[in-house]
Design brief:
Blueprint lengths: L12 E4 L6 E4 L9 H14 L1 E4 L6 H9 L21 E4 L7 E2 L10 E2 L11 E8 L7 E5 H6 L3 H7 L3 E5 L7 E2 L1 H9 L3 E5 L1 E3 L6 E3 L6 E4 L4 H15 L5 E4 L6 E5 L3 E4 L12 E7 L13 E4 L6 H6 L1
Parallel strand pairs: 2-3
Antiparallel strand pairs: 1-2, 3-16, 4-18, 5-10, 6-17, 7-16, 7-18, 8-15, 8-17, 9-11, 9-14, 11-19, 12-13
Length: 315
Amino acid sequence: MSAALNPRTDEIAVTPLSAHIGAEIHGVDLAKPLAAEQVAAIRAALLKWRVVFFREQFLTHEQHVAFSSQFGELTLGHPVFGHVDGHPEIYSISKFRKATRFEGQSLLRPWTGWHTDVTAAVNPPFASILRGVTIPPYGGDTQWTNLVVAYGKLSAPLRGFIDGLRGIHKFTAPSGASGTSEFEQAVKERSLVSEHPLVRVHPETGERALYVSPSFLKSIVGVTPRESQALLELLWEHVTRPEFTVRFKWQKGSVAFWDNRSTAHLAPSDIFDLDFDRQLYRTTLVGDIPVGPDGGASIAIEGSPVAAAAAVELN
């Protein structure tokens, strides 16, 4: 017996949350299969608002995977840090996951922690879908920034200059901190290093976005180290300007769905000062290889492209 479909799309409501990014979507049950019109409406909202949010969606792992698969092929939970046992498409984002555990004090900057998911891969995910399960009563908010608006707000001469530049992305511990042995071993066993354009042309909208993930972008190709650092810090400071961002307060059953091609986000650090647990689960959708304004595509330096979870399981 087939599962019941959702009601018609005229019940979907999209409520913007800020000037440039973020909207809540109401009137749809993510635990049920979506009608084609609903998939199209959600995707249109995603392209316009970059990240969309749903409330009171109490999904199982299976329902989370089923919802996600209506928008593309699912990757393995994480190409470096693995997946939930029995659910290869699900990645656990807990308070003390290995990807966030480091020894020593990192060098904190205004852009510390901001990132676009898995840009160390040559084909970073097209989108990420994160659901809240155990949520602290306060604290633990996540922020997103609009990299298309950030690009457009640069001066024309600077846009023209960076349009032709490329950068090296890879997984490493934050500056000033060393990774745990578990983190270092995972990165060593599944090394990912890629060269991406600093400006990415969005494959669906044709818009240009600053592709400058602060946590993963390590250097600019073809310039001196000092020039690279100065320019990267200018761009990182720029993309995290508050007016480009939205801040989301999680509740149990909340779901965030973001376009990983045109956003960066910041996971909360205040949770480490609280005694409350925090548990979320994420799926990611297979992405394409970024292309710059000059038509040049990204290049894999180390590691393989991120593949669909089904394909990984077969190998």
